[in-house]
Amino acid sequence: MFILASASPRRRDLLVQIGASFCVEVSEAEELFAAEDAGGLVLANALAKARAVAAHTGLPVLGADTVVALDGRIFGKPADEREACSMLAALSGRAHEVLTGVAWVKEGREFSTVARTQVFFAPLTEEAIARYVKTGEPLDKAGAYAVQGRAAVFVERIEGSFSNVVGLPLHDTAELAGKRGSISMTLLVRDLPAEERPRERLLTAGAASLSNTELLAVLLRTGVKDDSVLHVAEKGARAL
User: Fold this and answer.
1) CA angle at residue 149 from 83 to 91, to 5 degrees?
2) How does pLDDT run across 52-70, given as a tens digit for each residue?
3) Whole-angstrom Cα distance, residue 103 to residue 125?
4) pLDDT tens, 155-192?
5) Closest by CA position to 20, among listed 135, 104, 94, 85
6) Global pTM?
7) In the chain, which residue ranges form alpha helices assigned H by DSSP?
8) Which of 70, 69, 89 is nearest to 130 (CA)?
9) Quick check: is 226 catalytic?
10) One of 13, 37, 65, 140 is an active-site residue; which one?
């Protein structure tokens, strides 16, 4: 069981995909948006997110941050449609790098890494860029595109982790958790009958569809006694 310190639905979906046992608490850390080194930027933001949440829980906390980099320029999320078009025009027909900083914080210990993936874009016409931006999909994505969405047709090939381009390098995240932090990302109760494992149902795919109030109610009803877990749920419930 761990906490994902991120509001990203894509990171949440990737973790649900692999059966990870987690809950979400959005970090209140202030993010950096400019730096000379893209790797240093994503690493600093990932650590800041994880540290902010870890300050009030004993559970392992996972933080992550993703940017696109090209020719020394860092592309975060576009501010508007005009900037999204500008970003995509810059990426058109070029190879760019996607970087994700991954940080685990557990009981005062920190483990971090930066994953890098090369993405090769086909040449894009102004019309294709305009049509894509009008869908609204690029507006909350680093680099103004979603490789798992409509922008998949723009990508000629990828060298490296696909999930990194989506927002979280799953192999690197799990390897870092296991080898450095001794953090279990899944509950080892899958051989039990479904009715005997409410915590697994709650904390994997089911948790993604629960509100904070519902999460707190189910945790209490199923007898979960972990104060750190209850703190996360209670904090979210009070905010509603």
Assistant:
1) 40
2) 999 999 999 999 999 999 9
3) 38
4) 999 999 999 999 999 999 999 998 766 677 764 333 33
5) 104
6) 0.76
7) 9-17, 38-54, 81-91, 126-134, 162-166, 170-179, 198-203, 212-221, 227-239
8) 89
9) no
10) 65
